[in-house]
Amino acid sequence: MDTVETLARHEGPRGEVALRRRTSPEGTVEELVVNGAFAMDSTETATEVELGALARRRGAARVLVGGLGLGYTAAEVLAGTVAVLDVVELEECLLDWARQGLTPTWAALVADPRVRLHAGDVAAVLQGTQAPLGPWDAILLDVDNGPDFLLYETNAGLYTPDLLRAAYDRLASGGVLAVWCQGPTADLYAALAALPGSVTEHLLPVRRGTRDLTYAIYTLTRPPG
Predict the structure, then answer these.
(1) What is the separation, in whole angstroms, between the first and last Cα of the chain?
(2) Burial of 20 (0-12, 13-18, 19+ CB in 10 A)
């Protein structure tokens, strides 16, 4: 039988955020539940890692990550040659828990001098109305489960042509914008394809328990010059 321990809980204006530890005969798993919806756990993090690897493999010197989550995307970025990693998280409690080192991944992140944690809305950052300011060599967005499965309804604006254009404008020459989604999203692909540059749909098969799923990462690379 599984046992579940709540490591931290915060009730805010957008609902409850909870960090849980689930222990079973198979091992221990960290879970993040946001606004009553499952956000992620540490059972299967390959696609979050792949999101960070898109920046690492490019040798991006300055990277923006929208959405801290359990920290696996940011940790993968740090495995490369990044000089500055800005992490913007809407739920300030997650940043507090990271600073407290409630998970080993979070503890390693806050100990790295290249990391800068910012409480706020990444949409405002992309619009240039809130620090930090770009440009960035890579912008990695994983603020919820994509436009088809929002943790907060207000996040819908992040996937609109205006916000995607704002993100594009914050890219350095040759930089890449990458957006994680819980499945293929034709509308997002079309919105990105309307911007200058090269768009790629990365389909990532994942097995969770008895289910075979396909997650997606959409990338838009800004032309150099």
Answers:
(1) 58
(2) middle
